[in-house]
Amino acid sequence: MGPSGSRRRMEHILGGTLTCRSLFSVDSGYRMNDNQLINHFPNHYEISRKDLLVKNIKRYRRDLEKEGNILAERGDSKYLHLDFIPTTFVLPADYNMFVEEYRKAPQSTWIMKPCGRSQGSGIFLINKLSKLKRWSRESKTPFQQQLTKESYVISRYIDNPLLIGGKKFDLRIYVLVTSFRPLKAYQFRLGFCRFCTVKYDSSVAELDNMYVHLTNVSVQRHGGEYNSLHGGKMSIQNLRLHLESTRGKLVTEKLFDQISWLIIHSLKAIAPVIATDRHCFECYGYDIIIDNSLKPWLIEVNASPSLTSTTANDRILKHKLLDNIFSIVVPPSGIPDVRWNKIPSTEALGDFELLIDEDLVNFQDNSENPNLMRSGYKWK
């Protein structure tokens, strides 16, 4: 903790999620001053825990259905506009519902993940119900005992991922949120793709080969095919150029529109339950997979995305990310503070783009402003 001389007279408290939790604990007796900021919201786990993210998105859909909102329209038992997470259940609690869904397509593959872990830890794939008998036993224990056991989410595996060079990849996209009520968020343009080191193979023989299925750098760097020069990463700008040349410009634009759409609505889904505080801001790392029909799927959201640099390009990107975050939340002298300006300046945003601002009135009248031209922004 400490004041920054080059910024306005503010104190930045940069800490992990446990630091944030203890700061906002009633027992701590600590109260932040007007000139202090912290880089987490108190209950950020509502979006970063895999089970709570799914729970909040499902609740968001139900609430929109009750309102008769067109966004919650269904077709063939699926949501037409909010179908951006794979079918997911929490185990052991939802075991019976999972079995019912599994039996509709018994040849499908599912992926199991511990709710509270990261970096690919504890993840495995299953294609037979017999492998889950232990979860069936746990689901029949008293609820109080379930709380002491580690919960998992089980999701329908995206077994038709878009491949480049025959390899599976996902997207890491950074999103900065400065307020949840009203929702105000920014999307970083300089994200990247993370590739598996082994060519994709959906056969049963490769079901346990995590170098085929998991894109986490923490997993892939231990593989024999890992290249430390590029770290198995490619910029999103290069991905976009690749897709425009192979699939066409219009479908590529639609894909990135849909990515902005799912980010916005995942944030709206958790906004009602987040303990918003004017001292808080948070940078999230969104992990998104694209299937071979160019449909994006939200896999998970990280409240403490890794800032470790594995390559020179990685270091440049993450330095820009941090610098741009502080230019928004604590602008240097001479740059207007975007927190008090309805239309942020290009200088203040850097490589961020305004994704959504619920407090902005008549935004369509300002369509000539390039900072409001994000296609996702129209979905306020």
Folded structure, characterized:
The N terminus and C terminus are likely disordered. The longest helix has 22 residues. It is built from 12 helices and 17 strands. It is an alpha+beta fold and 380 residues long. It has 2 domains: 71 residues, ATP-grasp fold, A domain (Dna Ligase, domain 1), CATH 3.30.1490; 217 residues, ATP-grasp fold, B domain (D-amino Acid Aminotransferase, Chain A, domain 1, 2-Layer Sandwich), CATH 3.30.470.20. Keywords: ATP-binding, Cell projection, Cilium, Cytoplasm, Cytoskeleton, Ligase, Microtubule, Nucleotide-binding. InterPro entries: TTL/TTLL_fam (IPR004344). Pfam families: TTL. This is Polyglutamylase complex subunit TTLL1.
The CATH architecture designation of the largest domain is 2-Layer Sandwich
The run of helices and strands is EEHEHHEEEHEEHHEEEEEHHEHHEEHHE
CATH superfamily of the largest domain: ATP-grasp fold, B domain
The whole-number mean of residue pLDDT values reads: 82
- State the low-pLDDT regions, or none: 1-10, 361-380
Strand content bin: 15-25%
How far apart the termini lie comes to 36 Å
Subcellular location: Cytoplasm, Cytoskeleton, Cilium basal body
GO molecular function: ATP binding; tubulin binding; tubulin-glutamic acid ligase activity
Organism: Aromia moschata
Main location: cytoplasm
